[in-house]
Amino acid sequence: MLSIASIKSRWTSFIGTFVAVFLGVAILSMTGLVLLSAHPTVPERYRDTPVFAQSPTVDQQDSMFTDGKPWSAAKAGDLVVAFEQIPGVARAIPDRTFYAQPVLGGDPVTDVDQGYPWSAAELAPYRLASGSPPHQADDVVVPETLGVSAGTTLTMLTAAGPAQYRVVGTVDGPGIYLSDSEAARMSPGVRAIGLRLDPGADQDAVQAGARTALGADGQVLAGAARAELEPMADQRVRWIGDQVLTGLGSLSAFVSMFVVASTFAFVVAQRRRELGLLRAIGATPRQVRRVLFGEALAIAVVAGLLGSVLGGVLAPVLGDLLISAGLEPRTFVVETQLLALAGAFVVGLLVAMAGVWAAGRRAARIRPLEALREATVDSTPMTKGRWWAGGVCSGIGLLLIGLTVLGDPEDMTTNSLYAAMALIVGSTLLAPVVIPPVVRLLTAPLASSAVGMIVRGSALTAVRRTASTAAPVLLTVGLAVLISGMVETSMGGYAAARELATRAVAIVIPNGTPGLSDQAATASPGAALLPTELYTDDRRHFPATGIDPAAFAQANTKLDNALDGLVGPDTAAITASAASQLGVRAGDTTRLTFEDGLLVTLRVVAVLPNSAAPTPILLPRKTVRDHAPTALTAAVHVLGSPPTTAPLGAQALDRAAYAASADADEDRLVRIFVALLVIVALGYTALSIANTLLMATASRITDFTTLRRAGATRRQVTLTAAAESALSVTIGATLGFLIALLALYANATGLSHHLGTPLSLSIPWQVPLTAITLSLALALTATTLPIHLSLRHRPLT
Amino acid sequence: MPTPDTVRLRSVSKVYGSAPRSVTALDSVTTEFPAGSFTAVMGPSGSGKSTLLHCAAGLDRPTGGEVLLGGTDLGGLDETKLTELRRERIGFVFQSYNLVSALTAAQNVALPLRLAGRRPRPSEVDGALAEVGLGARGTHLPSEMSGGEQQRVALARALVTRPAAVFADEPTGALDSKTSRDVLTLLRGVVDRHRQTVVMVTHDPVAASYADRVLLMVDGRITEELTGSLTAESIATANRRGTSC
Description:
- The structure holds two protein chains of two kinds.
- By secondary structure, chain A is an alpha+beta fold.
- Chain A contains 22 helices and 22 strands.
- Chain A is elongated and about 95 Å long.
- Chain B has a single domain, classed as Rossmann fold.
- The A-B interface holds A 1-2, 5-6, 8-10, 273-274, 277-287, 367-369, 371-372 and B 54, 59-60, 79-80, 83-84, 86-88, 92, 94, 97-103, 107, 111-112, 114-116, 157, 169.
């Protein structure tokens, strides 16, 4: 009864909590829905084929998202024969994928670069929209959406380079289709065979038969399990999206809790008299605490319900955004699941309860006689609990800073983020200790003026109020500086490391294509890197690169071993760590499977330092090309003069430009991530600043009226209030900046250890400047506006 | 039914701060408030009269001596037990700020019962409000009532649990003389009709004249006790005498 009545009568104090929980739950339910929907689905291309055989999968523990070990063409052929003898199987269709990208108007068509054998169109099934199926090696069937009609000649990029194809038909689905024999030449290895069944066939019997025929050479998938056939590239994109969403969700939960906690701390400070009265007339400390919990719960229930509805509505929008940002596969669909909404709602309640916990403890300690006190002087701004909590949080923060510098580089970013969060909470708790000296320092020049004297005096007597208005600014500026600075510094770091590793004057990299064709790769003299994957028989896999040994040695600054022996089709140079993983030394042999499914015995001709090779295994370029006809060159480190005109689908960059852009794709994702986080953090704390200051100002109108009676002009009163908020913002910004700087410094030190290059801190100044300006503008508006309005109509008596 | 219990103070002291800058608000006070008596406590500012009332009512804890309600030593109770005792056996009226502004008059009156976990019968709350002459105003918020009406609501709340003792700290301090008389008459009625104990701090001799007994305090000690037939004049004279010496 009391909780509800008090919310009704002082709803302005609770707007902050309401909005914080509302937004928090909305963001959580939105991210939760998207996260839960982000699970593998049966690929569209395979939707109407009930049973599949899949080649053996490989271990994914390294988060590299590598596709399975392919069957060789011969093995696939044998399997097709065996499957087609199973009763009920109408046809067994091997699927192959390879690089094929049409060129229209002189430019490669973006996002249309996957080629398949024509028979695999049957798996969906996709049908001819016009024309006929491909038969000749240079026949091609293209999607009708490409806008090319049957009978025309089309330039198409394949791994070899651009070539002329004859469009013989168009299809009603995605993908480029070549004749089965041409597809088998492009990509001999097979990872999936689809089984089309006769009408009325017994699916279980077919599955059992297929399992017998397959033996240990893979697995049979049917129904929903066919989702495992999803390309690993899609899974990787989804994984990155998941990271962004998890970050977003946990950040918004943290900030919500922060806002609720500071709002309620304020509510308790404002209501000391009322709570004291309750204690006097017979409310036990427990009951006082329950009143606050009741208020928080009532607000959180309403805000949470509305928030989860909003989250449910916005989730598909976020899903579309993620798809267009490349953070989710194009097939992604957001499903509305009650579980995610309920989960977000419950988290919202817990966040509100956690936020009100400290305030409740403080309220329970209010003594009955406080009902008789009118002034709000903080007699004991620091309680024992606050000392403890502040000390523990700051301690954890510093410990994490240490871990960032010395610990596992994998956890570096997470550690520095958590370190900053812990330090932010710690310094907010310890603010009553830190603030008085800062206030004295900052207001020293103003102490002689009347306004300066009042500002100084009220900031010092109401330390907690000053602390709680400075806290959101601290959070915003701290997070903004930290997140943006971290990204900037680590990008600069990786770029520096990359730049140092090459002697090349220019680097040719793909432009609008997933990789360079052989023609683009050989147009410039230099070290071309042709990546591929090698597989062991025990589910492990090793990335490998095909190189020209002489050019590679010439371009690479970290290589001091001779690669002269790397010539024959059975030779390999491997890094020290790959050597120990494979259990081989120089001169030994090891057996590995290539992309075409063939098992090859390789002789180790050299063992290299780990940092000297882009991948654990180096092979002669010709070996890779022979076994992976559809592999694309990642980059060419140009040793002579750079090409004057870039080949089709390529661009040449000088060394510095390359260093800055090499991971452009990754960078783009990271930048989206940062932008999302900073926007959410800023939005939230803007809310919190406005909320706290509005509450503070409303409760101090009486103070300001007294000032007016004492002879202050309206201008002077407004100026006093404005100066007080400016002081709070300055304190918060200073502390937030220092904390972020500490965490950034730790991050940079850790990173430079990891990369072995000295590294300087870099902060994108526009981010903190925007954050501070925004905070200041909000703070000034939120204080001066209500004062201005209320003093205008308020008589002095 | 009210429990006729005596409130006893034995060598009660209250010292604020620590030596050498300590302030003694109560200096070893021993007295008692018998069941069914009406006592007024008077004295100049800083004489310790409010501190005496707060200690006797269990709102504040003395630094020495003991306070007993019936046979219970308030010093031996923890915060929760003390609060429960206050809720059930002691009523309280402050000079101002007695009511929770978010609640109506009836809700304010019902608050002690609700805090005790009871669902108040409407007759109980209405009865208490009728007793202070506000039977028709139960649904009004404090902000819609005059100062005198608010004090009467506070009195109704103090009486709704039928406490053994009602403590009032300057209950008429913020009221005009007409409204003061109404409130004092109500307090007198509490003693006469229900045999409840009333202890009231006041600086107004007229208010004190409604009591059976007047304690005069100076510097944390009881310097004089007036009983018998009390008039505003005789109290004022005694009070002046006490302050001047």
